[in-house]
Amino acid sequence: MLQLYQEGSELPQIVTFCKALDTLLGGGIPLQAITEVSGVPGVGKTQVCLQACVSVQLPRSVGGVGGEAVYLDTEGSFTVKRLKDMAACAVHHVGTIGGVAEDISCFTIESIMKGVHYFRCQNCVEVLAVIKNIPKLMLAHPNIRLLVVDSVSFHFRHDFPDARDRAKLLRSITKELIQPAVTHKMAVLVTNHMTTHVKEKGSATLVPALGETWGHCPTLRLNLSWCGPTRVATLTKAPHCQNSSAYFQVSVGGLRDISDNTQPSTAGILQHDSPHHEPLTKKRRIIESNNR
Description:
single chain, alpha/beta, ten-stranded mixed β-sheet, two-stranded antiparallel ribbon, 9 helices
């Protein structure tokens, strides 16, 4: 257990450039784990994925992972221009904090674009094919540290009328995802849709799709929602942090903390259980100013 603890504490995490969101996640998106991001359309799920594709390539000299990303696009929501905008802001920021002693010459917009391996999956068969061939892809690109599936529910919600067949396949996919994540120290980031769950006496609520069977598969579950005009990220499942929420915004350069004059609360993190609890975070040199 001591060895596992030491190995886990030495692993870097993928920052989001939003301090409140990184604090909520315990330092950022973790490696060797499956992180699910769910929410209604337009709340920012794909923006989180694009930001992660840029952030995973941050140089190790400034506290980053220094890896590459694989992006499985099932909905056609991937936008190259958004990725380029986020990359430009990340390159500018690293240039301002790197200093003359740090070698950041290889961190450019072009290198970031080359470091994202994109697959457009038209059906669940193509999704399975890409996931199963990740180990082969890593033979040619051993520096891959992030796998994004946006979204995991798009094809599987409608192509499988039998819920039992779908649950069986989703368990198989989970094994295919977690194996390279643990073996190669990767992060797996998936997005999920919301669906209506009807309770007793006719009441209903929005919950992540794919049912309770899939709910056990992700290591972390992050739900994005709206609080008026402000985006809120709520951590609903995590082995290392209490359930809590954080405000964030999507700017031209990507995910950022919201400014004090637009923040609905005096604190970026809202604790649901204990007001004295603060998730453990790792010290990082990447600190982005608000609204940058």
